[in-house]
Recover the amino acids of this structure.
């Protein structure tokens, strides 16, 4: 996979720093039900235990973020446990959010290109889930376009999620903005 560095005026992907946490936490909880809500304690745990926690900026403004956790982590997520019971090694995308003002502008693709470049050679796959109930058709279409393949579904309470994997021997389609 080719990894393209963004032009200065486009998307910048960088490590999250503590100063980003309030804005990331607010964006996360503003994005419910597409992602699960987090308490401050849960967010602090994820911030400290994510193997990959990056933010996307455009013109210095938060445009999105991603948090991913490696296999073997003592993590409370039942969706993470679903993957852990089926796959040996993986990097689990716990949450990825593009801010409403930045959607459909290449931010999501930039985040995933950075993620795959980071994960290649460390894990054989990236895993994640997308809501089926409540529906999130935009996220499903986006992930399937990138090459994620559905490997199952999981139902709980009043919810249902589609479980996806991206084998890292594959490569993402080139950026098409």
């Amino acid at each position: 996979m080719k990894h393209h560095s963004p032009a200065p005026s486009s998307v910048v992907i960088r490590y999250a720093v503590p100063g980003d946490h309030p804005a990331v936490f607010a964006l996360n909880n503003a994005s419910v039900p597409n992602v699960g809500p987090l308490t401050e304690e849960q967010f602090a745990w994820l911030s400290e235990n994510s193997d990959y926690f990056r933010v996307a900026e455009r013109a210095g403004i938060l445009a999105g973020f991603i948090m991913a956790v490696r296999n073997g982590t003592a993590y409370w997520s039942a969706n993470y446990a679903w993957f852990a019971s089926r796959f040996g090694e993986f990097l689990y995308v716990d949450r990825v959010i593009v801010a409403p003002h930045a959607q459909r502008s290449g931010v999501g693709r930039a985040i995933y290109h950075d993620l795959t470049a980071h994960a290649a050679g460390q894990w054989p796959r990236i895993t994640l889930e997308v809501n089926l109930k409540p529906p999130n058709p935009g996220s499903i279409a986006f992930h399937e376009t990138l090459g994620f393949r559905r490997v199952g579904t999981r139902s709980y309470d009043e919810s249902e999620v589609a479980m996806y994997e991206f084998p890292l021997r594959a490569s993402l389609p080139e950026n098409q903005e």
About this structure: The first helix runs from residue 21 to 30. Residues 165 and 174 are 19 Å apart (CA to CA). Residues 1-8 have pLDDT under 50 and may be disordered. The first strand starts at residue 11 and ends at 15.
